[in-house]
Amino acid sequence: MIGGMRRGTALFLMALAPPAGAFELALPVDCRLGETCYVQQYPDHDPGPEAADFTCGPLSYDGHDSTDIALPTRAAMAAGVAVRAAAPGVVKGVRDGVADFAPFPAGQDCGNGVVIDHGGGWESQYCHLKQGSVRVKPGERLATGAALGQIGQSGRAEFPHVHFALRRDGAKIDPFAPDAAACGAAGADLWAEDLLIEPGGLLALGISDKVPEFDAIKAGLASPNLPGTAPALVLWAYFFGPRAVDALLVTLTGPEGTVVQDRVLLEKTQALALRAMGRKKRGESWPAGRYRGEVVMLRGAEEIDRQVMEVTVGP
After folding, report:
1. What gap in Å lies between CA 169 and CA 183, rounded to an integer?
2. What is the C-alpha separation between 148 and 129, in angstroms, rounded?
3. Phi first, then psi: what are they for 89, rounded to 5°?
4. What residues are paired with 197 via a beta bridge?
5. For residue 280, what is the domain's CATH number?
6. Quick count: other Cβ atoms within 10 Å of Cβ 305?
7. Which of helix, strand or coil describes residue 67?
8. Are residues 173 and 210 in the same domain?
């Protein structure tokens, strides 16, 4: 799971499998959607200056032409997650040597990447791979699932992910809705297996003695046990895809009952967000024992996700 002890199951959409004999794709990453990775952004289906993913949701931006499969933290990236060929083909182009988390040379927005020619006009591209991880060469013939490199953050990338772009005869194709001119159109996708599609969700929870820095959360901040003299207890939630209609139900309890309980309204639609709620220490120390944090992400009356985590405080 991503972050907590339990992950929610509401509002998941299952992709429709392609008809037999059609061009099919395997998931191009060695991770489990909704557990160890997630889709941060889909191709844009809005013809104007706004953006909409294939479901008419906001998980895209204007002109975006790929599926961005992301890792929740840079620590997950450092551990190593393989990027794999989505279909058989021949390596058409390769780049490596672009540093992660650093300025990139002009024209190298993709960072380290691989392009594969699948025949029949089909071509796939894999961007932002980890520096030094690319393991294929131009002209090499690959089977589906062949390792290309690892998810990184090279080129124009604000978080660790693989930018998976698909083209046919030079035209950009959304693998989730290949025949849809606009969002919301029903139809088969190109994935060989049903994929878990999330409209947003929680990436990590933590309990700390102060509001953490957002960059520390994105790096993979841990939640160690805390001393009883901690100046405050703060429950934080890191999540993706919130909409302005969403809310978080935040509850932190300890040995003597509720420490924090609130409903937090989310006022903006964002790609990634952090919220934290807490209480300062009263008296000499916190009651010793286990403290349990729970966050529920709501969209209207529907539960999008739920996570729970615990730490020991004191003595």
Report:
1. 22
2. 9
3. 175, -170
4. 13
5. 2.60.40.2550
6. 31
7. strand
8. no
Residues 6 or more apart from 192 whose CB is under 8 A from it? Answer: 17, 18, 24, 25, 26
Would you state the structure tokens that stand for residue 241, as one six-digit string? 């895809």
- Token readout for 225 is 């046990």
The least confident of 42-46, 183-187, 289-293 is 183-187
Final residue before a domain boundary, out of 177, 193, 209: 193
Share of the chain above pLDDT 90, in %: 86
What are the pLDDT digits (tens) for 275-298? 999 999 998 999 999 999 999 999
How far, in Å, CA of 190 to CA of 288, rounded?
54
Q: Residues 6 or more apart from 309 whose CB is under 8 A from it?
A: 3, 4, 5, 205, 206, 207, 223, 292, 293
Q: In the beta sheet, which residues pair with residue 85? A: none
| Higher local confidence (pLDDT), 23 or 124 | 124
DSSP per residue over 214-249, as a string?
HHHHHHT-----B-TT-SEEEEEEEEE---TTEEEE
Q: How many domains does the chain have?
A: 2
* Contact residues for 310 (Cβ-Cβ < 8 A; gap 6+): 5, 290, 291, 292, 293
Instruction: Name the band, by pLDDT with cuts 50, 70 and 90, for residue 4.
Output: very low
Q: Is 75 helix (H, G, I), strand (E, B) or coil?
A: helix
The phi and psi torsions of 277 (rounded to 5 degrees) equal -135, 140
Per-residue model confidence as pLDDT tens digits over 99-115: 999 999 999 999 999 99
98 lies in some domain: yes
Asked whether residue 248 is domain-assigned, the answer is yes
Question: Most distant CA pair in the chain: distance in Å?
Answer: 72
Q: How far apart are CA 266 and CA 172, in angstroms?
A: 33
Q: What is the DSSP letter of 25?
A: B
CB contact set of 116 (below 8 Å; sequence gap of 6+): 85, 86, 87, 89, 90, 91, 92, 123, 124, 125, 126, 142
Give the chain's radius of gyration (CA, Å): 21
